[in-house]
């Protein structure tokens, strides 16, 4: 069978020089972009030639066409794909070499007779990668495959397509039982990249029990580096997803996260996640939110859960761990969201613990003001801290 394909992909380059006549593309050459291809899947022979004004012919048997991105309308243009580095090209070649070797042992050629969908180069590449992850015995091949997969799933459509390839169970299984540290690390990064801002993918991971499985791995983690790495996919899945957060809390997520925040190695990432969860609850229950969203966040009781874990008495000791603006911003946000619900003595202690922070921020604000080219970071943060400390004077006046 012969399948004629026009592929519009600009991220892989080739030394092959096309003409208006059909030419055989060598096996060791990647398919050049923006050409008309003829691929005989019974023999594996690939031919290519330059595009002609009348191509593709609608009468051509099994002809499938992808419009090159630069030829489409601006409103339909997808996000530009970053160009592959030489290392990534070599990784793809190694993966494909492995798969080609496996193909030699098959007795039946690949059959596309019933193919009724648009052929997408990235989908085929991900399919090959998932096959390599399931069948390859080489640890290096699996590590390279995961590295390329993580690169691909940053594209929202690719991440959704991966779900069709049993990506959820494949990645979670590798996180739990990967034979090398790199395999587990790349698997966690791939989950985080796929779930980031992608609602459909988040649902698939939640249905695959990703939240409870990741929490279990965090509890069992034998190294600080692995614990920190696991916080990435966990945060990517539960952020902006109330249902996932309900599962997170049901499995002791608030207690686990607050305990991690007490340790310097995990404080930055865990406090940022706590801050984001508290912010979501506040914004989700605002008057401007729709009723369904309000109901979802009210039923979570996020702030109440962290109060029960004694967050009010935990934060003061954490203010001295780091001095970065990002870290202080997360802690100040947590104080802003919780201080009104803290007991009187705890609220007073929170405000007192901000005084040394205020002193440091004043100096940073002065330096920031003198540098007109710098965006304002420390000065707005100082203003927020001063507003919180101002409550200390009011509290003393009431006494």
Automatic annotation (TrEMBL):
Protein name: Nucleotide exchange factor SIL1
Primary location recorded for the protein, binned into one broad class: endoplasmic reticulum
Free-text function comment from the UniProt entry: Required for protein translocation and folding in the endoplasmic reticulum (ER). Functions as a nucleotide exchange factor for the ER lumenal chaperone HSPA5.
Family designation: Belongs to the SIL1 family.
GO cellular component: endoplasmic reticulum lumen
Keywords: Endoplasmic reticulum, Glycoprotein, Protein transport, Signal, Translocation, Transport
Pfam family, one: Fes1
Keyword Glycoprotein found: yes
GO biological process: protein transport
Keyword presence, Translocase: no
GO MF annotation, one: adenyl-nucleotide exchange factor activity
């Amino acid at each position: 069978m012969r399948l004629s394909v026009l592929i519009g992909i600009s991220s892989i380059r080739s030394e092959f020089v096309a003409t208006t006549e059909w030419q055989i593309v060598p096996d060791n050459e990647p398919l050049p972009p923006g050409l008309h291809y003829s691929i005989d899947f019974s023999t594996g022979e690939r031919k290519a030639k330059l595009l002609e004004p009348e191509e593709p012919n609608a009468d051509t048997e099994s002809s499938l066409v992808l419009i090159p991105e630069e030829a489409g309308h601006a409103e339909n243009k997808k996000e530009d794909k970053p160009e592959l580095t030489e290392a990534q090209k070599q990784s793809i070649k190694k993966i494909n070499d492995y798969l080609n070797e496996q193909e030699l042992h098959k007795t039946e050629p690949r059959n596309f007779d019933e193919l009724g969908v648009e052929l997408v180069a990235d989908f085929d590449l991900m399919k090959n990668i998932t096959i390599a992850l399931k069948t390859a015995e080489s640890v290096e091949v699996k590590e390279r495959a995961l590295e390329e997969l993580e690169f691909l799933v940053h594209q929202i459509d690719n991440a959704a397509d991966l779900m069709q390839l049993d990506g959820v169970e494949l990645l979670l299984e590798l996180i739990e039982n990967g034979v090398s540290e790199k395999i587990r690390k790349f698997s966690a990064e791939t989950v985080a990249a796929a779930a980031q801002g992608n609602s459909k993918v988040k649902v698939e991971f939640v249905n695959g029990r990703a939240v409870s499985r990741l929490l279990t791995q965090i509890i069992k983690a034998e190294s600080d580096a692995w614990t920190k790495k696991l916080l990435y996919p966990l945060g990517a899945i539960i952020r902006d997803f109330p249902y996932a957060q309900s599962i997170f809390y049901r499995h002791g997520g608030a207690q686990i996260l607050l305990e991690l925040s007490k340790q310097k190695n995990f404080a930055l990432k865990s406090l940022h996640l706590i801050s984001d969860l508290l912010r979501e609850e506040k914004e989700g229950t605002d008057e401007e939110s729709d009723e369904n969203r309000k109901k979802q966040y009210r039923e979570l009781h996020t702030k109440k859960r962290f109060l029960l874990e004694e967050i009010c008495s935990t934060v003061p000791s954490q203010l001295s761990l780091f001095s970065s603006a990002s870290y202080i911003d997360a802690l100040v946000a947590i104080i802003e969201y919780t201080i009104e619900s803290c007991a009187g003595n705890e609220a007073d202690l929170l405000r007192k613990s901000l005084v040394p922070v205020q002193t440091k921020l004043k100096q940073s604000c002065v330096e920031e003001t003198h540098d007109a080219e710098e965006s304002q970071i420390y000065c707005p943060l100082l203003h927020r801290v001063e507003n919180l400390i101002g409550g200390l004077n009011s509290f003393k006046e009431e006494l």
